[in-house]
Design a protein that fits this description.
The complex is a heterodimer. Chain A contains 5 helices and 5 strands, in the order βαβαβαβαβα. Chain A is of the alpha/beta class. Chain A has one domain: Response regulator (Rossmann fold, 3-Layer(aba) Sandwich), CATH 3.40.50. By secondary structure, chain B is an alpha+beta fold. In chain B, the strands form 5 sheets. Chain B has a 6-stranded antiparallel sheet. In chain B, strands 12, 13, 14, 15, 16 and 17 form a 6-stranded antiparallel sheet that branches. The chains are: A alpha/beta, B alpha+beta. At the A-B interface, helix 1 and helix 5 of A face helix 17 of B.
Chain lengths: 149, 676
């Protein structure tokens, strides 16, 4: 991956909202190939996701993530509600949210963008594809924490 | 023509000389007849001496007069000075009715129902021609109307009155001659209806012989019906006397002349008699002769209408046979809702006999709950009578005699008859049809549901299979990447089989998804250019075409109604296959189309590829069926199955002609006005 940050710099915080351990591990493995100073935080349902973002309860010391990878089908509180809450909150709305889901239904795609998702990605079967998606967001796109640097 | 005998009222003590010629002279008007009988009758009224002779045997002259008065169409009434009717001939009885007791002259208008020509104002009794004649006054052709409740319709008459005086000139009574002009009145009314009704009249009688005669009885016009009926052409008949087609017997009786005389006198003559065709064969003819008067009332000629009553009988019996042979139950209903005609199928359908039906209200064939609205419907039909089917959108039921109900289909037509418009109803038992239709609807519903369920099943299954597969595929891939060459040769081989298997499974599931989705997201049926669809498909295949050096050509391709994306997909699959399964030569592919009755647009994609053995012609269209090993050709065997599904969704079919080594031609037909 293209190096755009020095390893000594502050880590890039990524919040992964995913209840499937298989998918969590895959994402971890995909990120391993990156040389960027990444820090992956994982929560397994929508309630925890909002607590993490609001620094509530166990997450009072949580960092503000530069990118959210959000599954749509989650226990307790669904990904759509999480997405809506983030995008309705002026303090959070600038964080890019990548919807990462198994669903390819037109309804889910349209609804997610209507809720102002920044990107909708069907979970790739191929691991290389997942690496490419992450590469785009981390190395090609510019994230909010880089603004003004 | 029968000559009615005079009634017993005839006073036999009549001693007068009547010229015998009277009986056979055409009688042009009532007035001239009156003049002819005036003197002798007056003589009768005046002479007590006549009566005193008490002659019981009538003379020849008396018999002749008796015969004349009995046979003429004009009514003759003689009254004495008190108004007693002393003579009423048969024609007068026909007009005013039989059995006329002594009625005081002041009551005549009331008793006989006499009205002025306006048909409303009762006639002033003292102005009646007979009353005036009894006062010594003369009346000439006075028009009046007779209307009484027991008479079926108004009778228009003209009456001439003469006083009767004895030889000494003493007033003895009065007489009137009455002419029934109802027929003439009707034809005058008809004439007033104008050109339109005349045309429809001619239309209605086009099968009849219609011709005109001049006042002498010579033919002055001759229509086609007359040519057909008599065999005489217009050239042969024009100028000829009408007697030419009377039988010898009737000629001897002088009927041609008598008939015209009656028409001239009364305006109309009507009878049935034998007439002769040109070939000499007799036919029983219905004859109607109408006098034609100019505006001044002068006779100008006659209009004659002949109908062949034998033919009528034949037509009638044929029509009867037809009515009985038709599978529909047929009813004719008049404007009052009464059944005027019913065929055998009606009896069968409703369980009533014809005797029970005829004259009964048609509403008895309806279930109670429909009866109250039926009258309005019937009225509506007669207000604007036109052909209509009563099935659409309505569940109609009939009621049998045994009280059971059954669904019916009814089609109504107006039928113009001489008695007015009738409603002709053709009724079909809808039980079987309704049952079949209900069943069909149900079956279609079931089929639709099971089809939808199947598609949903395929979709959901393949979708849900993807989830665990993704895990298997991703982690075997990860294994391969991370541990290749580190776990030993066996492990490498196992991992590569696992990766290959999961990759193929992924492809199968994706194809299954594609198949279950094919055609489900219709863009809609549009009129499209099939050439555009082919070009789109070729653009998608650009890489494969370049790689295989394929050349694709096409003939003229039509515009048709279809979902454009689906046609494009069919072309893409077929041309793609043609490139993929190529032979030793670079692929040459030619696409053509033609229109075939019963098929619609038939497209053909011809290639010079490997060709297919005939035993595989069916199999290749089944999902996941492949003829080649995976090593030789990639793919799961989904393309033709999708083509088949799409073509069949458009009501068409797909098939192949091929020989191994000689290329293949895939044909598919798209019906143009197909179902979705």
């Amino acid at each position: 991956m293209t190096r755009k940050n020095e390893a000594t710099r502050a880590p890039i915080n990524i919040l992964l909202v995913e209840d499937s351990p298989g998918d969590v591990r895959l994402t971890r493995e995909a990120l391993r190939s990156s040389t960027l100073p990444l820090e992956l935080h994982v929560v397994s349902d929508g309630v925890e996701a909002l607590e993490f973002l609001g620094r509530q309860g166990a997450f009072s010391a949580a960092p503000r993530p530069s990118l959210v990878l959000l599954d749509l089908n989650l226990p307790r509180l669904g990904g759509r509600e999480v997405l809506k809450t983030i995008k309705d909150d002026p303090a959070l709305m600038s964080i890019p949210v990548v919807v990462l889901t198994t669903s390819e239904s037109a309804v889910d795609i349209q609804q997610s963008y209507r809720l102002r998702a920044n990107c909708y990605v069907p979970k790739p079967v191929d691991m290389d594809a997942l690496v490419e998606v992450l590469h785009f967001w981390l190395s090609i796109a510019r994230l909010p924490h880089e603004a003004g640097k | 023509m029968t000559v009615p005998l005079l009634r017993s009222a005839w006073p036999l003590g009549l001693a007068v000389v009547v010229p015998l010629a009277l009986a056979i002279q055409p009688m042009a008007s009532g007035a001239s007849l009156a003049a002819l009988v005036l003197a002798p009758v007056a003589a009768f009224l005046g002479g007590a001496s006549l009566r005193s002779r008490r002659r019981r045997t009538p003379t020849d002259a008396q018999l002749a007069l008796q015969s004349v008065l009995g046979s003429i169409r004009d009514g003759v009434i003689v009254a004495d000075l008190k108004g007693n009717f002393v003579l009423v001939n048969a024609a007068a009885e026909r007009i005013i009715g039989p059995d006329n007791p002594g009625v005081d002259p002041s009551q005549w208008s009331d008793y006989f129902g006499i009205f002025l020509a306006d048909a409303i104002t009762p006639y002033p009794p003292s102005d009646l021609p007979l009353a005036r004649a009894m006062r010594g006054e003369v009346s000439e052709d006075v028009e009046m109307v007779l209307r009484r409740t027991r008479m079926p319709h108004d009778v228009w008459i003209t009456v001439s009155g003469r006083p009767l005086r004895d030889p000494e000139g003493v007033l003895r009574g009065g007489m009137i001659v009455i002419t029934d002009v109802t027929a003439r009145k009707d034809s005058e009314n008809a004439a007033r209806l104008g050109q339109e009704s005349f045309r429809s009249l001619v239309e209605s009688i086009r099968d009849d012989a219609t011709f005109m005669l001049d006042i002498e009885g010579r033919v002055s016009s001759w229509n086609q019906g007359a040519e057909r009926m008599t065999g005489y052409s217009a050239d042969e008949m024009l100028g000829q006397h009408v007697s030419k087609h009377y039988t010898a017997n009737d000629l001897e009786l002088g009927r041609p002349r008598d008939e015209l005389a009656v028409a001239a006198t009364t305006g109309r003559f009507e009878c049935e008699e034998w007439r002769l065709r040109k070939n000499g064969s007799p036919y029983w003819a219905g004859v109607v002769v109408t006098s034609m008067l100019d505006q001044s009332g002068t006779l100008r000629g006659y209009m004659t209408v002949l109908s062949d009553l034998n033919a009528g009988l034949r037509t009638e019996s044929r029509y009867r046979a037809l009515l009985e042979a038709t599978p529909d139950a047929i009813l004719m209903v008049n404007q009052d809702g009464l059944i005027e005609l019913a065929n055998g199928q009606i009896e069968h359908l409703f369980g009533y006999t014809r005797a029970e039906l005829l004259g009964a209200s048609v509403e008895m064939l309806l279930p109670e709950r429909f009866r109250h609205v039926h009258g309005d419907h019937r009225h509506g039909f007669f207000v604007s009578p036109r052909r209509r089917a009563m099935r659409e959108g309505l569940d109609l039921f009939g009621l049998r005699k045994d009280g059971t109900e059954f669904p019916v289909e009814i089609s109504l037509s107006p039928l113009e008859t001489v008695d007015g418009v009738l409603a002709l109803a053709a009724i079909r038992d809808g039980t079987e049809r309704k049952r079949a239709q209900d069943e069909l609807v149900l079956t279609i519903e079931k089929l639709k549901r099971s089809n939808a369920e199947l598609e949903q099943f395929a979709y959901v299954t393949s979708h849900d299979l993807q989830e665990p597969l993704r895990m298997v595929a991703s982690y075997t891939q990860l294994l391969a990447q991370r541990y290749k060459g580190r776990l030993g040769a066996d492990a490498d081989e196992f991992i590569s089989f696992a990766v290959d298997g999961s990759t193929r499974m992924r492809q199968l599931i994706q194809d299954l998804l594609a198949y279950s989705r094919a055609g489900s997201s219709d863009e809609g049926i549009l009129e499209i250019s099939s050439e555009d669809a082919l070009n789109e498909a070729l653009a998608n295949l650009e890489g494969a075409m370049k790689e295989g050096s394929a050349v694709v050509t096409h003939g003229p391709l039509p515009r048709l109604h279809m979902d454009p994306a689906q046609l494009e997909q069919i072309f893409q699959n077929l041309v793609g296959n043609a490139i993929k399964y190529r032979g030793a030569e670079p692929p040459r592919i030619h696409v053509t189309a033609r229109y075939e009755r019963g098929e619609g647009h038939v497209f053909s994609v011809q290639d010079n590829g490997l060709g297919i053995d005939a035993k595989h012609f069916e199999r290749i269209f089944v999902i996941f069926q492949r003829l080649h090993g995976r090593d030789a050709y990639s793919g799961t065997g989904i393309g033709l199955a999708i083509c088949k599904k799409l073509v069949e969704r458009h009501g068409g079919r797909i098939w192949v002609e091929s020989q191994p080594g000689h290329g293949s031609t895939f044909h598919f037909a798209i019906a143009n006005g197909h179902q979705k």
